[in-house]
Amino acid sequence: MGSRDVIQGGGLPSLADLMPWGTAGISAGRTWVYAPEQATLRRRWERLAAATDRDALLRPTRSRTTASVPAPLPGCDAPSGPLAREVGPTPRLLRIARRPFDRQWLLADHRVVDFARPELWRVRGERQVYLTARQAGDAWPLLCSALLPDAAHHGGRGGRVVPLYRDPAGVEPNLAPGLTGLLADRLGVEVTAEDVFGWIVAVTVDPAHVPLTADAALWAEGVELGRRLVNLYTFGARFGRPGDGRPRLPGGRRPFVREAVPARPPGATYDAETNALLLGSGRIGPVPREVWDLGVIEPWVAARIAAWTEPATDGLERIGERTWSTDLTSELTDLLHVLGLLADLTPARSALRTRAADSPTLITCETLRTTGILPLPPATRRPPTVLDITEEGPGGQAVLV
After folding, report:
1. 125: how many CB neighbours lie within 10 A of its CB?
2. Strand locations in 51-153, DSSP E?
3. Are residues 194 and 163 both part of a single domain?
4. Domain co-membership, 103 together with 44
5. How far is Cα 152 from Cα 102, in angstroms, rounded to an integer?
6. Do the Cβ atoms of 196 and 189 come closer than 8 Å?
7. Structural domain boundaries enclosing 374
8. How distant, in Å, are the alpha carbons of 35, 66, 71, 73, 340 from that of 55?
9. Is residue 251 part of a domain?
10. DSSP line for 140-168
11. What H or E segment, with its residue span, contains residue 256?
12. 3-class SS of residue 209
């Protein structure tokens, strides 16, 4: 039986077989708690604190009203009381992965976030990296972030967030027990949790079918490429080498601001003749066509100019920065570096995926069953703690599970 038959017959393990514990991303239930710039959230919170009718600004849901007093988010201060009685100073602002390649800020106050997924917050750490699995056929079937991912990062329903580690110290991998040992035995090399993570990122097209090869040379190539992808997806925060810093294109290909971005650009367009990104009269280049065609830049810019390009609303969303800042230009340049380097890796990634799918030494679910790795112990699919903080209910009390 060839590898194509294995894939069609469902013989390959799924992402959930290899990395058992996962959950949905943050789902706030309201959009005003997110913003590209911290100053926006501080102004919105001040407006909420000064309001007499806070219900109208909060926009209550079944999970959150001005009377809610949920448990504090891990690593954040406890709320001073319900929003109906007092608000207090601006809570901690946490940078999250809002959408693919779009890092924004979140008001980290459980009173205004419906489903914060506290279990994901508990395992944050300097080694942690979150994998977001999107639906099959998506242009980005798997993405990574060193930041807590929002549900929009995995496309809402049907996706999930899978941490690499089950603890903040990065000691307990979120992998099927015995998986690294089996791979090390078949490959004849040491295999770490980061190696498995990198391989999965490099070769996965459909999270329901992850090809695992026993070809040592192919494995090494895939791990190396996967680690590079993770480093780019996380803007250099994970899987890099000491001293690497932020990802940067080589000299001669680095994008520079050729003409300053105006105070209120109307949006992002592309000039194919000069390979330049245009923001009104602003010009940044060189930007290759394949980078523009990734479809990331336009929505990224749109999220940052909404205050002057979208119809005004009556809620806190109408409070936003009214001009384009130099900080946004710097962030956009960082994004262009990452996207350019990812575009460079596209041919190698496509070729590797084909070779992985066609590998004659694929490790199937049958192998995982005969070696005792599958079925997985039920505990591996549960959050890594016996204390589960409820997100609904009176007082947000903690209950043992």
Report:
1. 15
2. 93-99, 102-107, 130-133, 142-145
3. yes
4. yes
5. 10
6. no
7. 3-240+357-400
8. 21, 6, 20, 22, 45
9. no
10. SSEEEESSPBBGGGGTSTT-EEEESBSST
11. strand 256-259
12. strand
CB atoms within 10 A of CB 139: 9
Count other Cβ atoms within 10 Å, centred on residue 220. Answer: 14
Among 334, 353, 372, identify where a domain stops: 353
Distance (Å, rounded) from C-alpha 212 to C-alpha 359?
Answer: 9
Q: Judge if 9 and 57 occupy the same domain.
A: yes
114-169, pLDDT tens digit by residue? 999 999 999 999 999 999 998 777 778 899 999 999 999 998 667 899 999 999 99
User: pTM score, two decimals?
Assistant: 0.92
Query: Does 246 fall in a domain?
Result: no
Q: What is the biggest distance separating any 2 CA atoms in the chain, rounded to whole angstroms?
A: 70
pLDDT in tens, 5-36: 333 334 999 999 999 999 999 999 999 999 99
Strand, coil or helix: what is 195?
helix
Q: Where are the alpha helices (H) located in 235-325, listed in sequence order?
A: 289-292, 297-304, 306-309
Does the residue 200 lie in any domain?
Answer: yes
Q: Between β-strands 387-389 and 276-279, what pairing exists: parallel, antiparallel or unpaired?
A: unpaired
Q: Report yes or no on 249 lying in a domain.
A: no
The string of DSSP letters for 23-50 reads: B--BB-S-STTEESSHHHHHHHHHHHHH
Residues 41 and 143 in one domain: yes
- Residues in the chain, overall count: 401
Joined together, the tokens standing for residue 250 give: 């080589």
Angle at alpha carbon of residue 138, lines to 153 and 304, rounded to 5°: 40
CA 202 from chain center: how many Å? 16
Q: How far apart are CA 225 and CA 247, in angstroms?
A: 15
- CA 87 – CA 217 distance, rounded (Å): 58
Q: Which helix (H) or strand (E) holds 282?
A: strand 282-285
**Count of domains for the chain:** 2
Q: Where are the alpha helices (DSSP H) in 253-313?
A: 289-292, 297-304, 306-309
